[in-house]
Design goal:
The structure is a homodimer of 506-residue chains.
Chain A: H1 3-17, H2 24-48, E1 53-59, H3 65-75, E2 81-85, H4 91-94, H5 100-105, E3 112-116, H6 121-124, H7 137-151, E4 155-162, H8 165-170, H9 196-210, E5 217-221, H10 225-248, H11 279-303, E6 307-313, H12 319-329, E7 335-339, H13 345-348, H14 354-359, E8 366-370, H15 379-382, H16 388-407, E9 411-418, H17 421-433, H18 443-450, H19 452-466, E10 473-477, H20 481-505
Parallel strand pairs in A: 1-3, 1-4, 2-3, 4-5, 6-8, 6-9, 7-8, 9-10
Chain lengths: 506, 506
């Protein structure tokens, strides 16, 4: 955060303190039309079901934060408004990455979420002598969170309700009903705040550092209730209308075709598919790895160390078999397998990462994804299910998601099971012959096979853009099922043992 | 629980201790066919997507409970198997009725849930000198839970894995792999158990008290791993096949038409629809009730007292308006409104009560349902969306659900907003004229109006069969919107104040 920006924010605070007041008479003249328009826009947003509205409310005690919440709930249809306030994390929340609780609270497309301080609670409570810095992880997480939601179409509005120190001091709770709204201006802060000067200085810092085009802060003077309410509701009205218009123009599906040719330098071509394993070596290695996994999973459970293992790969590459062999070594007590298919209708109303956030388990658990969030940059890209811009920005979104996992201590492993085209055909034929496995073969398999080269391009981009030090891609040669299974078991055992050792050394 | 039944259970324990063993050779001969059949049945269950499978596993340490879990996960496709073990409730769980955590863990139709001790953990840990008695609330809750799931089509199987005291003493954890399965028989109990004699005596009591046709206990001797595994897997095979057959014959939709004539004694006819309220009285009462609500909701938040308010009523009876006026008196900080429409596809894969369980909020919150679980005995009955038997048993299911809420301290209020047919027509016409409210009017409204008499019969049955002392129906005269709104506000304020006073007096 640059001091210049923060002082600019402080200047806006000052001017907000001086906003002219609005008389009851003037407000009465404006209000009926405003309200009809707001309700109408809310219905349009609901019926369109295209995007959620996310509103963050924060401000000085006495400036009307709770009142704004109540006014929005009262003026609009409260059935499509959800209010969220976050106190100290519950135990279920504190066992997951910090943003898990915000993700799980997100409104579906068509609905509206009101957030008291939202994800700013911790930052706003900071000591202003140690302000958030430019490279601060928390700022990066907030920026990534808001950007990924905005990119997905969400309308994000953030309000800071301000008062001069004098007004703040003299404001009092009152039992008088407001003459126009008929509701009480309920001005208490919803939780204790630091002293005025400290709080306002911190807020100026935070606002300057998190004010973006897609998720802007609006500073509103809070001393005059009529003015404040009109200003906020009118801003909602304008924003709703503008966003509906903008989203009506948004592209619905793919415009640019995905590459049909394999890239010049193909990372998959570096995978040594000749790797294989004798029955005897397999039996021995299986026993060894099973033992290691068995011990490691008891230890991670006791240590509360969570892990997430994502499997991707060609159709018939042996994902299911590898997962089952991994399961042989684990006790079902603390792992779960999450199979990923096309999203259901609840999931479709949310950001594509929402269902993966939702699946993250409590401390000490192993969550295995059979296909994963990488569908975004694989099938959704190759089959043109989403616009080019959507899968292109997905690399950053996925990196941010994974970084939040690993930063919170989750062991993250990503496998691409690689086979060649001939091997795939052999396996399809085998499946057709085997009555116990015929169900595995679907029309999709042949469809995907036709897009082999497009997938190669997609896998290359994926590996290049989402391999990080804490979560590298593991390309597993899988023409030999035995070799692939042992590689997977060994990699998981290695990673868990390493993480356990690191934790003990802390 | 009768002593005779418990001793019968103890006898079955004894005979299980003597089960003959199965040699590796014999088992090998049986296993391949068994496994192919099991996988095939699992696929059928998954593709049919008609019912969930719920398997409870409990038993003496050393008898192979964890091993059974692992064998099922290993032999079948673990992607459609979910394992659940419940330790001490998390804080989010302990703030809701005790069965909330079981409801939220239930597998969707087509999937399989494995439960370590399931909802029996607490009972199995009891002192056998104070055994569960016939009228025990916990037994009633378990019985109601299992019955409602079974009635909804779920296949429920409960296993008690038994060992003689001698076997229990000599059993040891081993690192040796099983020669047939290739997995370790992992025999540790997943959590500490009372001494053998105590545990077994308690188990005999519990099993005798909870053994029902729809959710039977199977006692399996655990000393011989081959025999035990074969017995359990073969029982799964038979049960899967039988249940698939049974469910294929299950009726899909309504067979008996709902009553088209109003009942002889119509409880709705006792509602005095002439009740009305002057503008002046309304303004005064509104102010008074708003103040009461405002104070009460702060107090319930601090006391952690939860409440659930369900609104039902004729179309255009003013549910939305009443909810909005109620909201005027509340701070949006700790209430939420849950609008109930047709279930989404995730909800459709679950018991109809699942989504209402899921919506229950944490301690201190007010949850307002705009339409509710009563849709089961109203629209679903009247429109023949479900078989007659389904809505007929729903009264008991709903009573059990509501009793679990009130028993856990939730304040539960149920409103039926009543208007007459003429008033409804007037309101439909008004809506059509008003551009701001035209969206409220749908084809459903006129469809429902045609079924007026059938609804009267359904409402009468509903009121008669689901009014209890702790959760009576409140029939609100709503021809006058003002009168109805004040009645609702007053009733809520009364109930919250009463509950707060009762809590303070404890």
């Amino acid at each position: 955060m640059s001091p210049a920006k923060a002082s600019a924010a402080a200047k806006i605070f000052k001017s907000a303190e001086k906003a002219a007041s609005l008389s009851d008479g003037e407000f009465r003249k404006l209000k009926d039309r405003l309200r009809v328009e707001l309700i109408d826009l809310q219905q349009k947003i609901r019926n369109r079901g295209q995007f959620p509205v996310i509103i963050v409310l924060a401000g000085v005690k006495g400036a009307g934060v709770i009142d704004t919440l109540n006014v929005i709930n009262t003026w609009m249809d409260p059935r499509w408004v959800e209010t969220h306030a976050f106190d100290a994390p519950s135990d279920e929340e504190s066992e997951r990455p910090p943003f898990w609780r915000y993700w799980r609270s997100l409104p579906a497309a068509g609905a509206m979420g009101l957030y008291l301080e939202g994800w700013y609670g911790e930052l706003l409570g900071l000591d202003p002598k140690r302000p958030v810095g430019r490279g601060d992880d928390r700022l990066r997480h907030i920026a990534a969170f808001e950007q990924t939601l905005a990119d997905d179409g969400a309308l994000i509005l953030k309000f800071w309700l301000h008062l001069s120190e004098r007004h703040h001091r003299t404001c009092q709770e009152t039992d008088d009903e407001d003459p126009v709204f008929g509701i009480r201006p309920a001005d208490h802060a919803w939780r204790p705040q630091p002293p005025y000067s400290v709080y306002v200085k911190t807020a100026a810092n935070v606002i300057a550092s998190t004010n973006t085009d897609r998720a802007p802060w609006h500073i509103v003077g809070g001393h005059d209730a009529n003015r404040r309410r009109f200003e906020i509701l009118d801003l909602l009205r304008k924003s709703f209308a503008a966003h509906l218009k903008r989203m009506a123009r948004a592209p619905k599906n793919g415009r640019a075709a995905a590459a049909r040719r394999a890239p010049a330098h193909d990372v998959l071509s570096t995978v040594d598919l000749s790797r294989t394993m004798s029955d005897k070596d397999y039996a021995r290695a299986f026993h060894v790895e099973q033992n290691r996994l068995y011990k490691a999973q008891r230890a991670v459970r006791e240590a509360g160390l969570s892990s997430v293992i994502a499997f991707e790969g060609w159709d018939a590459a042996g994902k299911g078999g590898a997962i089952r062999r991994l399961a042989y070594g684990l006790s079902a007590y603390n792992y779960k397998v999450v199979p990923i298919a096309a999203p259901n209708d609840e999931e479709r109303k949310h950001h594509y990462l929402w269902r993966f956030w939702r699946a993250l388990d409590r401390a000490g658990h192993i969550t295995i994804f059979d296909r994963s969030w990488y569908g975004r940059v694989l099938v959704e890209r190759v089959d043109n299910l989403i616009p080019r811009s959507a899968w292109q920005r997905a690399y950053d979104e996925i990196n941010a998601f994974e970084e939040e996992m690993t930063a919170s201590g989750i062991v993250l492993l990503k496998f691409w099971l690689h086979i060649d085209k001939d091997e795939q055909l052999r396996r399809f034929k085998d499946r057709r012959k085997d009555p116990a496995r015929r169900w595995k073969l679907t029309g999709d398999d042949f469809h995907n096979r036709k897009n082999w080269n497009a997938y190669v391009a997609a896998v290359n981009d994926m590996v290049k853009r989402t391999s990080s030090e804490s979560a590298p891609w593991r390309l597993v040669p899988a023409n030999s099922k035995k070799f692939a299974r042992i590689t997977v078991m060994e990699t998981v055992a290695d990673a868990l043992e390493r993480a356990l050792a690191a934790r003990q050394n802390r």
